[in-house]
């Protein structure tokens, strides 16, 4: 065993009557434990929220989305679409036309986004999370149906059981068609039958109406143009593999985005919040670790004679510094281990039993989501170690400067 560690361990495990220094050391260890536990819990909650967001978005968005790099829409042909369907890893290809439109139901009006999709839209396991009630089809060609976000449906006061009141959709015509005195010539309109509600996340619930592709194409006069293509990846392939394959095939004119890239801004915000919370809690942990500084400083004063004896026996200043640095490390390590274990236990209990509820009756999940990642434990340990070294260095240096002739 290293001699400096042996001395540090003896100081740490001292069984002599507890005095102010040992009490301060215990307080230091408890402070490190509480700070470490808080870091583990908060990081795990942020991981859980990020995972929840991904899961909710995956219920509405495609695994891969093909968009034009510049502009709003692009021309498609059946031959070109068939080539994409035949690319390795493409299980389902859904055509999409999406734009803003005015919706009216029983006198109530709302501007929302109409998303026209081909018949295989629901084959991509849409709405697997959240709530969905009503018919899972989009009607027929003669009687097209609409799946409404819950916010849209509630704002328009849509009654799914009342089949006699249709959902009216209005879309403005191109500006060149505006040179007329008849207001009916300024827009196109159509009728949809509300068949279902979905509720995933407010961003989608308050904004989207899902409609058949043919109805949306005719209403918006898109012809062979599409705003996006959505891809479901086959089971034997990874999303990254298929994304790379499609990007190479389509070239620079198109963007192939995975689920994270479709909402890069929101996920980046969550990660930045997690980073700033980590830094804030680490700063608080650093303040709590000042107890280590004071306890080691007082220990260095109390052990002046012991240090003088060690130096008289030939111990160099470097060894004395190591003793106090390791003493601080033992205090912090004990607190960190306790904090990591308690943090893990609290997160496990929350994930298993949902101890802390969100308090929102309409929420998709009942309790705060948590997800533990080993890298968080690693960085928390690194933070504790760094703070300990900074807090212990000055007392260790003071202890190493004890003059043997004055203390003996």
Automatic annotation (TrEMBL):
Record domain MacB-like periplasmic core: where: 25-248
Cross-referenced Pfam families: FtsX, MacB_PCD
Residue span, ABC3 transporter permease C-terminal domain: 280-401
Parts of the chain that traverse the membrane: 20-46, 275-301, 328-353, 373-393
Localization annotation: Cell membrane
InterPro entries for this protein: ABC3_permease_C (IPR003838), Lipoprotein-release_system (IPR051447), MacB_PCD (IPR025857)
Keyword Hydrolase among record annotations: no
Keywords: Cell membrane, Membrane, Transmembrane, Transmembrane helix
Main location: membrane
Membrane topology reported for the UniProt record: Multi-pass membrane protein
UniProt keyword annotation of Acetylation present: no
Family: Belongs to the ABC-4 integral membrane protein family. LolC/E subfamily.
Record's protein name: FtsX-like permease family protein
